[in-house]
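Sequence in, structure out. Go.
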Amino acid sequence: MTQARPGQDPAPRALQRLRRVVRDLVRHPQRVFGDVRPGEGTLVLLMFLNIFLLLVSYYIIKTVREPLILLGGGAEAKSYAGAAQALTLVLYVPIYGWVASRLPRLKLIVAVVLFSSPRSRSSGPTRTTSTAGPRASGSSP
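Output:
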C-alpha cells in the first residue's frame, strides 16, 4: 500500500478502491464464491438457481410430510420413519457411489433423472376418469 503524499487525503483513493470492489460484486457476484471465468457466469447462476429450488422444495416437502406422519401414526411412526430414512440412505449412498464411479457423467445424469421421474415407474399409460356424470348434450360416449 502506498503512502499518501503529505497534505493529500488518502480517503479518495480508498473510496475509489471501495467503489471498484462494489462495482465488481454487482457485475459478477458469483466471483465471491470461486473462480468464475468469462462465459461461465450464466451457468453458475443457473446452478445457484437449481440448488435454491432444490432446497426450497425440500423444506416445503418436509413441512408437509411431518404432519402427515404424525396424523397417520403419531410420534412413534415419526421416529420409525426417520430410522427407515436413515437405513435407506445407508444402503443407497454406497450403491450410488459405486454406480457413479463406473458410469460417464452424462449417462449418470440421465439414469438418475429417469430413475427419479414418476413417469418411468408407471406401469403404462395413465387414464384420467371423469366423475362429472353424463354430458350436457345428452349423448352417450
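Check: The chain has a mean pLDDT of 76. The chain has one domain: 14-117.
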